[in-house]
Amino acid sequence: MNLVCSNCIQSFPADRMHVLPGWVEAPDEPGHFVITFRCHACYPAAIDDTGRRVAAWDDATAAGMGRFIDLWDIRDFLPELADSNDREAATGLVRIVRASDGKALLPRVVPDPGAVEEAGFLERLSIVATRMPSWKVLLLCLGVVLTGVYCCTALERL
Ligand SMILES: [Zn+2]
Questions:
Q1: Which of 75, 91, 109 is the last residue of a domain?
Q2: Distance from Cα 9 to the centre of ligand 1, integer Å
Q3: Residues 51 and 117 in one domain
Q4: Is residue 130 located within the same domain as residue 69?
Q5: For residue range 109-151, what is the model confidence (pLDDT) as tens digits?
Q6: How far is the CA of 140 from the centre of ligand 1 (A)?
Q7: Which listed residue, 5, 8, 10, 125, has the most CB atoms within 10 A of its CB?
Q8: pLDDT-derived band at 85, boundaries 50, 70, 90
Q9: Residue 5: which pLDDT band, with cuts at 50, 70 and 90?
């Protein structure tokens, strides 16, 4: 599985990519943070930019980081940040991304690509399940059971 560096637009294997919150600005909307993929060459400048923004912590950064942390469930995904406020969580996130050389967020966005292809149905279900709210998992399980019941009933009628 390959990912594309959003700076130089070249494609690399996922395990060689770095993942970080990156600041984007569009002409007609406030700037915000998005999950950003960077190749080895483009990563240092990107994490430095994010680190500078978080250190400065202006209003736009605070709002953008608040949304990013909620959207990606960062406090669940990185339990060491569970009890921190937005600013502490953002600072911690930058520290963790740096310490992991940009790998810490990779499994949050790309669950082991090899595992998805090799795992059996149940493992696949659990990979999906860990990325869904529990009520969706319940509905999915109910759907699987009902489909099974329906197929058995249909077969018995034949
Ligand atoms: Zn690049």
A1: 109
A2: 6
A3: no
A4: no
A5: 887 655 545 545 444 455 555 555 666 666 777 777 777 777 7
A6: 39
A7: 5
A8: very high
A9: very high
* Distance from the Cα of residue 91 to its chain's centroid: 18
What pTM value is reported for the model? 0.69
Q: Which domain holds residue 60?
A: 2-109
Q: In terms of pLDDT, which residue wins out, 119 or 39? A: 39
**105 and 77, same structural domain?**
yes
Q: Is 133 exposed, middle or buried (0-12, 13-18, 19+ CB in 10 A)?
A: exposed
Planar angle of CA 8, 72, 2, nearest 5 degrees: 35
Q: How far apart are the CA of 125 and the centre of ligand 1, in A? A: 33
Alpha-carbon span 85 to 70, nearest angstrom: 12
Residue 6 Cα to ligand 1 midpoint, Å, equals: 7
Look at residue 9 and tell me whether its pLDDT is greater than 50.
yes
Report yes or no: 86 and 66 within 8 Å, Cβ to Cβ: yes
Ligand 1 geometric centre to CA of 136 (Å): 36
